[in-house]
Amino acid sequence: MTAGSAPMSAPIPELRAALLAWFDAAGRDLPWRLGSEGRRDPYRVWVAEILLQQTQVARGLHYYDRFLEAFPTVEALADAPVEAVLKAWEGCGYYARARNLHRAAQLIAADGFPTDYGGWLALPGVGPYTAAAVASLAHGEARAVNDGNVRRVLSRLYGEARSTDAWVQARADALLSPDRPGAWNEAVMDLGATVCTPRAPRCPECPLAAHCAARASGTPTAFPAPKVRTAARAVQAVALLIGDDRQAVLERREGQLLGGLMGLPMQAVGPDGSVSEALKTVCERLGATPGELLGQVSHSMTHRQITLHVYAATSGLPRQAVATAALSKLDHKALGLLQARQQSLFAAPLTEGSSV
DNA sequence: AAGTCGGGGCA
DNA sequence: TGCCCAGACTT
């Protein structure tokens, strides 16, 4: 419980009224909020919720418009090749989201949209958060969402620094407005995204400030306590650029890391740290002849700090158009290396077809 | 319960 | 630089 000087939390109906009044006046206008409250378009809400997983709204907006233009309906999404879906997702990260979205679209095209929480939860890529969001926003179901915003807002409101997932869900369930569940969920997330922000919360603008334990403590940013994260490992790899930055030999990546995307042929550098050995391995695998070192690229991902040694190579393998393939940022950096190098080597305007 | 999966924004 | 973001899935 909170200390003696901290405010007792207000009765739940009072908290609901305060936040919903703020939301009605200051809630964000977002493209997936078309349609009436609690009756939003399921397809638009679902796509948005998948896109926004671990992705800030400001960033998701760009991809959302692009994605809906490419796939205006669930049927269009279901009928598209997965390569096209990944191309629309290119640069957005966590590509399993796009693969699952495509699989789920095919299930929906066959069976129709789910109509409740349990139905949504059964779809690939849909977990407790997304199922609660779509059920409340599109179907008016009384399901409380639990995301990073909710966790932060409720941890601060009740002064619980070490809030567990179950604790947050229980508080969210208790607070959820039974009359306006969709609006309530949107309101808590809007508050977390625009007022109760991680680094510099705008407490004077907060409709719950008078009831907030973290505000009373004087150090609202201490709630919740930071999550412990495993450190990124430093890894090295060799990539082959066979061709140029427009036409190159590309491979389809398998597995979890960047799975489904295309990319330059790569080979991880072994624990002995021998780059030349990795270069030899990948060249033998492709039947390619190694050329000169084009340079190094460094790229950080969630659990990896990658140093990529990019070599030119020659091979009879067919090249693909880079522009139409879905590539990771790492591969785009590697391709950019060639362009930067050409510009530095040739001060005069470059003539076409002079690469390799 | 802990690891893994991208990439960018921001203090 | 480190932490965070409208999380889900695997082990």
UniProtKB/TrEMBL annotation:
Reaction(s) catalysed by this chain's protein: Hydrolyzes free adenine bases from 7,8-dihydro-8-oxoguanine:adenine mismatched double-stranded DNA, leaving an apurinic site
Residue span(s) of domain HhH-GPD: 51-194
Keyword list, A-Z: 4Fe-4S, DNA damage, DNA repair, Glycosidase, Hydrolase, Iron, Iron-sulfur, Metal-binding
Cofactor(s) it depends on: [4Fe-4S] cluster
Pfam families associated with the record: HhH-GPD, NUDIX_4
GO MF annotation list: hydrolase activity, acting on glycosyl bonds
EC number of the protein: 3.2.2.31
SMART domains: ENDO3c, FES
Family in the record: Belongs to the Nth/MutY family.
Listed NCBIfam families: mutY
The protein, known as: Adenine DNA glycosylase
